[in-house]
Specification:
435 residues; alpha/beta; Adenylosuccinate Synthetase, Chain A, domain 1; Adenylosuccinate Synthetase, subunit A, domain 2; Adenylosuccinate Synthetase, Chain A, domain 3; 3 domains; ten-stranded mixed beta sheet; four-stranded mixed beta sheet; 22 strands; 30% helix; globular; binds guanosine-5'-diphosphate; binds 6-O-phosphoryl inosine monophosphate; binds magnesium ion
Length: 435
Amino acid sequence: MNKIDVLIGLQWGDEGKGKIVDMLTPGYDVIARFNGGPNAGHTIEFAGMKHVLHIIPSGIFHQEKINLIGNGVLIEPRIFQTEIEGLARKGVDATKNLLISKKTHLILPSHRMLDAANEQAKGAGKIGSTLKGIGPAYTDKVARNGMRVGDILSDDFKERYNALKQSHIRTAKSLQFDIDSFQIDGRSMQEYEQEWLHSIELLKQFQLVNSEYFINQCVKKGMKVLAEGAQAMMLDIDFGTYPFVTSSSTTAAGVCTGLGVAPQLIGKVFGVTKAYCTRVGAGPFPTELFDETGRRLCEVGHEYGATTGRPRRCGWIDLPALRYACMVNGVTDLFVTKPDVMNDFDQIGMCVAYDIDGTTTDEIPYEYCTKTIRPVLKNLPGWKTDLTGTTSYADLPAQLRACMDEIEHQTGVAIAAVSISPDRKDVLFKTALMQ
Ligand code: GDP
Ligand code: IMO
Ligand code: MG
């Protein structure tokens, strides 16, 4: 039976999903995003060009492939327009090969205002949201108040928009939020709203489809589909470090609800992890390094958010969290990115278990956000070699391969490939599986 492959992040996001999806795209006919929205920032580099995608799937640079925005995604039309224009400047006409589910929910300007209002109300307990309106838009979806892409074609769109906006204003007022001074991307709410409404017209130029039928027909016809996840396992609404999470299902299970496919249609589950670990925003991060090593990871790894520009917190790889991610998602193949960032390191730290109140465990405890979790570290020797120009896995330094062996041993999942630069071409396959 023809099946859909899935690619997800296994840590707290920014593992290099965009790069790996772009690299894998030639082997697929359709790339379909199933969750998240403009909170995502997926970076793709090739031929000296760097591009960051937020809502649009990472297969878009392969113009002969179909890219689909699934029902589980959120679209912010103004941000979407900026993305479309950015692609056009690079010669990519997305109107040709990008389809959008009519069931995709819309982020309104007032959702973005509510995001800011909620964060302000949380004070010191704030999540560190990207302020793109994600939480409020998914809240409206679940509360059955949301607006969907298909609604832009209906006659009462404007009335429904205004009614929802008014309810958001009432909520923001109840949170004592200063609505009048609130700005979105340097514009007043009124200015931004006009631009947003204008962008709705652009959305109408795209093929708006019943994507669950579309995708199931693709599978039936034998077309190869890759489902692209945004965010990552540890930011999942159910299994992440709640409440310091995003508001969508980031796991492989999210593919079924985010695209409308049955569980038995899921084939391979590709999990992407950095060779170390990062997190942007608030919340627990047991392996975080506050020392010179952490600063080196941040500087050498250019660990600044692709969406917000915020510095990412950095630390050693967290193998209990990775094991948990492999278990919940049924990961079949691992992709490890960015070991090249540690080329100069004498030692590579790996967290193999947690010490919680003097007890060692390799499980993710329910009290992840409330207990102090100390990493139990295993140090492996560094490779102290520049990886530039390495073209095969076998040619990687023995110390680096030993680190990869440790990841395989600790997770019980085979590594498919290791990425050693931001460029699409620098992916070294360990197994012949995907080549
Ligand atoms: P995503 O959100 O998972 O798609 O990841 P991001 O694009 O937010 O962040 C990953 C960053 O690492 C981007 O700047 C990529 O260009 C970069 N990157 C990806 N793979 C590698 C790699 O193997 N080595 C290095 N040095 N950088 C990489
Ligand atoms: P990609 O797809 C890293 C984080 C935010 C914040 C929390 C909630 O590029 O890996 P939200 O805006 O969703 O309400 O923010 O989740 N976050 C991400 N961190 N990469 C992402 O996406 C993220 N999307 C959201 O920093 O802590
Ligand atoms: Mg990112």
